[in-house]
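re: that chain from earlier
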Amino acid sequence: MAKKARSKARKKRVSTVARGRLAKAQVFKGRKVRTVGGLRAGDITRNKHGRYVSKKQSARSKKSKWIRAVMRARRALKVKGF
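^ sequence. v structure.
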């Protein structure tokens, strides 16, 4: 019996979906296409602490009544910093 020719090894396909803790950072920097949750580079921004966050959620949280009240109170008390 003749030996069967071995098939050529296929190249592993690298995922375009970012997973894990640094997923948003990878998408933002262009290393991956989207996150597991479906966020693409245009949907991500950095907050004032430097974290990669959803633009939509970030904008929504800034409209919170509590945050507005705190901002007004700080302005009234002339408080700067922490």
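Residues 17 and 38 are 9 Å apart (CA to CA).
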